[in-house]
Design a protein that fits this description.
Number of helices: 12
Helix content: 25-40%
Structural class: alpha/beta
CATH architecture of the largest domain: 3-Layer(aba) Sandwich
Order of helices and strands: HHEEHEEHEHHEEEHHHEHEEEEHH
């Protein structure tokens, strides 16, 4: 079959979510012939979650075994385990914020790992610069044109690749997706805009606009095919989607984004890399009245955790092929400020979730929170470069080959960082 027919049938028919009765006649014909024609096949999927705004990792992954934590945070520290609003103990030294209890089944089953003291070697305290450096994966250098996830896809070229190979559930294409490999940005499965990499302008008119404006260039045909593909996805009536296994997503935009990523994974439309952030409803930049086991940060962490737990529950055994990686541009100061909040810091925590994750463990080298152990006397020191974590999921999960091209001017390390993937 030619490429367009391939897109119309195998990928999109599987995207019908059981709504085949409402699909065009040729989809019924394809369904009858599925024994001889395969779709995009089983894919490994990486889901990246950006916690924009710099979450306080020390109140998320709580170092309750470090006495300095409590002396530095007299009013906002999360209390030790077994006390009121106390941390949920993980290993005797670290615990989760008590509002993150929904993640504990994943921890206990070895499907959730934490990486502590991870971050950028660049000391910037600018949200904009730090996010740019993390998404380009070239900290300290602003001249990089493409994003690290796009470079992963560039190094894994596919003939007749799915137009939904890389999907961001965001208003705009994230920096991590900039580049020559095509990618899609949407806020939901029915109403979205698309950007085809760094070299194509944002087409506010949707897919029809892309086709009309780019019909003469090399992206025109892809634009038309994607327009056709998404029209069939719309017929799946995403509003009628029912999560499986009793999963309940929180009503926040982050929960809706993860639910729709789960829909795309189940649809078999060729998704390999998904991106989302935690949305405008969750504000990690807690300079004032942050709270400890209760309060604004704790409430945000509840939504964050409940969404991740629902996603894993919804996908069930499909999590064999899925890894979720969370990240934030930098951490926050070890000492609380005069407004009972925290300011821009350095080292932070990432989480990895999936059936292939060697979980139930905190990875990384946590130096401690004494004054002589802190970065510049104020922040958790970075002992794991975030690029080593990125390289782990690119190489071991997505099977990317040329890691040096994905992370230019940096040699990733298997000795500085012990991997969390099986």
């Amino acid at each position: 079959m030619d490429r367009r027919y391939f897109l119309k049938t195998s990928g999109i028919a599987l995207g019908s979510f059981g709504m085949m009765a409402a699909a065009p006649e040729f989809l019924h014909q394809f369904a009858a012939a599925q024994t001889t024609a395969k779709g995009f096949g089983k894919k490994k999927v990486l889901v990246t979650v950006f916690m924009r705004g710099a979450v306080d990792g020390l109140n998320m992954l709580v170092p309750h075994g470090d006495d300095s934590y409590y002396s530095l945070r007299p009013s906002i520290a999360v209390q030790p385990p077994k006390k009121t609003d106390g941390a949920i103990d993980l290993d005797g030294h670290f615990g989760l914020n008590p509002t993150m209890a929904s993640l504990m089944p994943l921890w206990k089953s070895g499907k959730l790992a934490a990486i502590t003291a991870v971050g950028s070697p660049d000391n910037t305290r600018s949200h904009f610069d730090a996010q740019d450096y993390m998404e380009s994966a070239t900290p300290g250098y602003k001249g990089t044109r493409d994003g690290w996830l796009n470079r992963v896809l560039q190094g894994m070229p596919e003939k007749d690749a799915s137009p939904f190979r890389a999907v961001a559930m965001t208003q705009q294409l994230p920096r991590a997706f900039y580049g020559k490999a095509e990618s899609v940005a949407m806020t939901n499965l029915s109403d979205f805009t698309i950007k085809a990499g760094l070299y194509t302008a944002d087409m506010k008119g949707g897919f029809e606009g892309i086709y009309q404006q780019n019909v003469k260039d090399s992206l025109g045909e892809m634009g038309k095919e994607t327009f056709e593909a998404v029209n069939y996805l719309k017929q799946a009536n995403p509003a009628q989607y029912k999560p499986e296994n009793g999963a309940v997503y929180p009503a926040a935009s982050f929960g809706r984004s993860l639910m729709q990523i789960a829909q795309l994974i189940k649809a078999g439309v060729g998704l390999e890399v998904a991106f989302t952030d935690t949305g405008n409803e969750i504000r990690w930049d807690t300079h004032t009245n942050q709270g400890g086991g209760r309060g604004q940060l704790a409430n945000y962490l509840r939504t964050f955790s409940d969404a991740l737990a629902a996603f894993s529950t919804d996908l069930g055994q499909r999590m064999d092929d899925v890894v979720v990686l969370t990240m934030s541009e930098f951490g926050r100061t070890a000492r609380e400020n005069g407004s009972r909040g925290t300011d821009h810091g350095h080292g932070n925590t990432m989480f990895a979730i999936g059936n292939s994750v060697k979980g139930g463990k905190v990875y990384g080298d946590f130096k401690g929170l004494r004054g002589d152990q802190l970065n510049e006397g104020r922040d958790l020191a970075v002992t794991t470069d975030f690029r080593d974590v990125f390289a782990e999921v690119a190489e071991r999960h997505l099977q990317a080959k040329d890691i040096a091209k994905i992370f230019p001017n940096y040699t990733t390390s298997k000795t500085r960082f012990k991997g969390f993937l099986g």
